[in-house]
């Protein structure tokens, strides 16, 4: 993409209304714009990150065997009356009346609807296990939306729903998502720690929140230092091997880790003092095992191998891509701006032409722009006639992993400068070596 | 994807509520499920088509220079009061009150919001032309939703908005989208005819609907027979060449073509009788040039090269991917089911194992499944132990372009059968030739 033809409205001033760094940086970098309280537009740069984050989530859901579909944002209130949650849910649910005075709502989550879909089609244990997910906009009418997309009212959520014939296989479904989440967050450069968590309005007894430690976190969390050094399972993990999944989950749940609501002082005191990490945390994922909480009242029954009908065992599994982006920035930035982890950067490379109009600069830039794109790299090419300081500041602010700087002297000598955004390392190299260097 | 692990709830009965063939076939093929009046879930097969259709639209929008972003579904009523449309829009607008009793609405279109975004950031003619688009769910509270996703209440829409300094360049922006639309529909195997159309609640004087002829169309349309033989511009079209774009638009608007509202009896009678096509049509796209209708009341001004501030000239350009899928099916099906055009099929190939468990069938199928996927083909592998008749009926119903049938006798001889869904042609060929045959 040529910057001269892109829409990247960088703000020079730091917006006063933004209380946390991710909100400030997303506004300054032209990623988002507030349309009303808790309602955001994703400007082109932000939309690209949203797509990249969603892609990683999707790849790991698919790898684990979950199947993508898409439910509507608007739901009928009748479904929620069946589960008993319509009255329970409170004012966070956006309730709507249509022209025929029928009660609708903007879905805050989809347990009821997916249970309804399941019961319409599935009758036999032979069609299980099943895990269906979608990535769709949700709405929760927060009394005080704040922190930008970290706590907005309309937000994107990936929610998956598992269906199994009994407790044991549904626990395996839970483990499968647990492991998929470890991989998902690691691919985004995040250290997410699974912590025993309260189940709130979703229900059930078993639940983990995946938490990133950050000073701007919304709640206090407690965990063993060991988590900081644990590595997520690799690509080769076998999602059909229940025992292997249980082992991984066991490893990741043995050291102490709990959110404030689930904090257990006695267990905490048993952790050696030097190993205790008490910090603030941001929730980036939340998984629930709630068994038959919805299938019983909504009569989602399947016939087992013994011919008997049983309510299906369920779990649900959420990640919010929009809030996740804010969390990534909280975890990865410096005083100059955002530092995108490789897998979710809006562009892979920022190509800076220091002197557009200079014949040699233009030739080198056009060549690199074409070569890098042909090699599958997403390139943002700054072809604008602006000051050097503004060019560098913009590139640092938007945080692309690699910058390639083409100045007239270097171009004449057939050389460019390469800068890594994360550590600031710089090197000068021949134009012909750039492609090899970046694919290394 | 292995069918045994997929969620493809085929209906054996033809659903009684479905009045048109696309609705019937989408329900039977397990693509969609109605959740409430005019609200549909997209089941996994349907979601795949939605993604493929959206991808084609996105590629052609990007090619034309439009830039993708994403606006929220929920909008503030205040914006619509600024333009004067809040009261005009009528009962089709889903009006919502939040917990603080602020007036919101589920966006039926985004002229106001995009104008608001534009005026917040853009001040100078130097940042023009600009075309921003998004693909987002919209809601129109139809008094009588029907025909499945053809006329649903919640529906997906790609809407693009162009901004230009004067009438002439905004007409070029209009031409650019006009040409992008011709290409988009052609890539989906559709013959879409641009017809002068009424502008309705969007406003402006210049507008075209892109119409597919189909007996189940919602309205009567009139056009010259010449349109049926015209070919859309190729990949090489230069979207920066205003004169070339105007030429194409001229060619495509010279023969008579009009919707019922814009029909002109005198002009129609001037068309030689043998050249007249009066038929029913389905609208698949609608483009509008409305100049300063929104920029004036909403004060979206830019400074021109002469230093004077002028209201920006705008147009908007819509395609509904969800309704488009129904239209494609109306145009492409037979008595056995859907016939997907290549670019939008949910899978490229259906691989049918006639006898799972037979060692030779399994080996051949696993080999082809791996090879085809490695070659970038999306494969649905029917590995289920079901009757031959059911297997064939399902594959024909879901309409994948190519079927590869692996039976025990053929597998032993190293041969498979290849069937093209569209024409029903069959050929037997060696296993080793399949890949070459499909990439030919």
From TrEMBL, chains A, B:
<protein>
    <recommendedName>
        <fullName>Proline--tRNA ligase</fullName>
        <ecNumber>6.1.1.15</ecNumber>
    </recommendedName>
</protein>
<dbReference type="InterPro" id="IPR033730">
    <property type="entry name" value="ProRS_core_prok"/>
</dbReference>
<dbReference type="InterPro" id="IPR044140">
    <property type="entry name" value="ProRS_anticodon_short"/>
</dbReference>
<dbReference type="InterPro" id="IPR002314">
    <property type="entry name" value="aa-tRNA-synt_IIb"/>
</dbReference>
<dbReference type="InterPro" id="IPR002316">
    <property type="entry name" value="Pro-tRNA-ligase_IIa"/>
</dbReference>
<dbReference type="InterPro" id="IPR036621">
    <property type="entry name" value="Anticodon-bd_dom_sf"/>
</dbReference>
<dbReference type="InterPro" id="IPR050062">
    <property type="entry name" value="Pro-tRNA_synthetase"/>
</dbReference>
<dbReference type="InterPro" id="IPR004154">
    <property type="entry name" value="Anticodon-bd"/>
</dbReference>
<dbReference type="InterPro" id="IPR023716">
    <property type="entry name" value="Prolyl-tRNA_ligase_IIa_type2"/>
</dbReference>
<feature type="domain" description="Aminoacyl-transfer RNA synthetases class-II family profile">
    <location>
        <begin position="38"/>
        <end position="341"/>
    </location>
</feature>
<keyword id="KW-0963">Cytoplasm</keyword>
<dbReference type="GO" id="GO:0004827">
    <property type="term" value="F:proline-tRNA ligase activity"/>
</dbReference>
<dbReference type="InterPro" id="IPR045864">
    <property type="entry name" value="aa-tRNA-synth_II/BPL/LPL"/>
</dbReference>
<dbReference type="GO" id="GO:0005524">
    <property type="term" value="F:ATP binding"/>
</dbReference>
<comment type="subunit">
    <text>Homodimer.</text>
</comment>
<keyword id="KW-0030">Aminoacyl-tRNA synthetase</keyword>
<dbReference type="InterPro" id="IPR004500">
    <property type="entry name" value="Pro-tRNA-synth_IIa_bac-type"/>
</dbReference>
<keyword id="KW-0436">Ligase</keyword>
<keyword id="KW-0648">Protein biosynthesis</keyword>
<dbReference type="InterPro" id="IPR006195">
    <property type="entry name" value="aa-tRNA-synth_II"/>
</dbReference>
<comment type="similarity">
    <text>Belongs to the class-II aminoacyl-tRNA synthetase family. ProS type 2 subfamily.</text>
</comment>
<keyword id="KW-0547">Nucleotide-binding</keyword>
<comment type="function">
    <text>Catalyzes the attachment of proline to tRNA(Pro) in a two-step reaction: proline is first activated by ATP to form Pro-AMP and then transferred to the acceptor end of tRNA(Pro).</text>
</comment>
<dbReference type="GO" id="GO:0006433">
    <property type="term" value="P:prolyl-tRNA aminoacylation"/>
</dbReference>
<dbReference type="GO" id="GO:0005829">
    <property type="term" value="C:cytosol"/>
</dbReference>
<keyword id="KW-0067">ATP-binding</keyword>
<dbReference type="Pfam" id="PF03129">
    <property type="entry name" value="HGTP_anticodon"/>
</dbReference>
<dbReference type="Pfam" id="PF00587">
    <property type="entry name" value="tRNA-synt_2b"/>
</dbReference>
